[in-house]
Amino acid sequence: MGYEVTTPIFYVNAAPHLGHAYSTIVADVLARHHRQRGDDVLFLTGTDEHGEPVANVAADRGISPQELVDENAPKFEAMRGPLESSSDFFIRTSDPRHKAAVQEILTRVRENGWVYEGEYEGWYCPKCADFKTESEIAEGNTCPIHGIPLSREKERNWFFRLSAFQEPLERLYAERPDWVVPAVRRNEALAFIKGGLQDVSLSRSAISWGVEVPWDPEHVFYVWWDALLNYVTALRFARPGEDLTASHWPAVHVIGKDILKFHAIYWPALLLAAGLELPKRLLVGGFLLVGGEKMSKSKGNVLDPFEAVEAFGADAVRFYLLREVSFGNDGSVSLEGLRARYETELANDLGNLASRSLAMVRRYRDGIVPDVAVDPEIAAAFAGLPDAVAGLLDDGQVSQALDEIWQRVRRLNRYVEERAPWTLAKAEKPGAAGEPGAAPDALDVVLRTLVEGVRSVAVLLHPWLPAATTTLLDALGAPDLDWDGGALGARGASAEPVGELAPLFPKDLPALA
Ligand code: ME8
């Protein structure tokens, strides 16, 4: 089955920070999980290269906007490797193929009767590239997101009849109550719709850096329309020689709460106007905070994803962000917090569990995992786990899904302490294995349960910890990532001994600056 998952496409007038990395990681978790389910995944990310801010920065620097975006887009593309992101395609909105598709789709929207010419006057934030409605204007006529003064702008424009979609959008929200998650964001979008929708500009004539309006070349399309359309235009050229529209649209979108209005209101209206299907889901994340404020370049409080990965590794950064900032909520992040979770959860809870389990099988059974059934108590604790995690992921509960698995990691740690296999080993008489009522059976069960438990959580944790789980599964001689195979007990006996395992999360971390 085709599955498309997207990140927001990033503005290129700033360098990437951990806030940008967050949505990439969430989308990557979903992409990897769906590959494990056997879906044909298209994980799409990219850069949003048009609009006034880019044109302004380029003018300040005395270079062309195209030169500026060519210089900056690779900085976002470069996050892929360090973050272990498995994105399949990186779209850039200055790509001529994207521009041609935008022109074609918006021409169709006009032919369908949803576009007219008029004059617009309103309060405009150049950083949001957005006119603000009355309810969105902060004190002193400033932008509620950027805190900068809004400017009064007036221009002849092409308009999109957003007001005509009031009723269809209300119906969408009534019929698909979980179309936007979490519910707090759904309610926010619905309240905005119920407050009354006004028509919005489709084009701008004050700038020329954008996608030309084909029927009026003095104008370019307003950057948000061009940007939103990336999610469908990319399907035409992401895979050479194929058009993935029929197989992969509609997509699941991962976004931040600051761009809710565009995705939850403008985007479905535009798709309806173009006669296209609506997205499957909008998964809306909160903000990463530093010192109680949104991490952002303008606040000067950004953490560099490349530095964080350099110090702790991609797995740890991915894990930390999703564990610390429950997806959907805001949460504070810091390198100290990252180090703490690295040491307690990754190195101790998971790393130690894996090392000890493999080491004990090697020591007590020459690496051969005993061919016995897993302990029924642990089997009960793991029952239904792959389906439960998949269900949470489908609902956008990416942090809760991780927590479900982590509770099992903790359960296995308690199991080691409860059964104390080292004591069972001492009680074992040489050659006693298999004798009725003898101790070896107990040790066999514990070892088999631990190894199979570690394998099960490794398969299920793969979307969050791709590198460590690959190492671990290789050491177990069980590299298969098939999601259903993540069920406890899904793997039978093997004649091959387990391999050696170097520490998954070494404790010799560099000192923090
Ligand atoms: O909004 N915490 O681009 P962008 C969490 N081009 N997420 C954060 C964050 C933080 N501190 N800072 C930024 C745009 N983000 C548009 C999108 S989509 C068709 C066009 C998230 O580069 C932010 O919420 O300003 C947004 O979802 C994403 O990074 C891109 O931000």
Instruction: Please give the share of residues in helix.
Output: 40-55%
Q: Calculate Rg over CA atoms.
A: 26 Å
Question: Low-confidence segments, ≥5 residues, pLDDT <50?
Answer: 436-440
Chemical compounds bound to the protein = ligand ME8
Distance between the termini: 47 Å
Fraction in beta strands: 5-15%
- Name the structural class: alpha/beta
Given the C-alpha coordinates, what overall shape results? elongated
Largest sheet features:
7 strands, parallel
> How many runs of DSSP E, i.e. beta strands?
16
Q: List the total number of helices.
A: 20
Query: pLDDT average, as an integer?
Result: 94
Binding site for Zn(2+): 125, 128, 143, 146
Cofactor: Zn(2+)
Keywords: Aminoacyl-tRNA synthetase, ATP-binding, Cytoplasm, Ligase, Metal-binding, Nucleotide-binding, Protein biosynthesis, Zinc
GO molecular function, one term: ligase activity
List keywords for this structure.
16 strands; about 525 residues; single chain; binds ligand ME8; ATP-binding; alpha/beta; nucleotide-binding; seven-stranded parallel beta sheet; protein biosynthesis; about 45% helix; four-stranded antiparallel beta sheet; elongated; EC 6.1.1.10
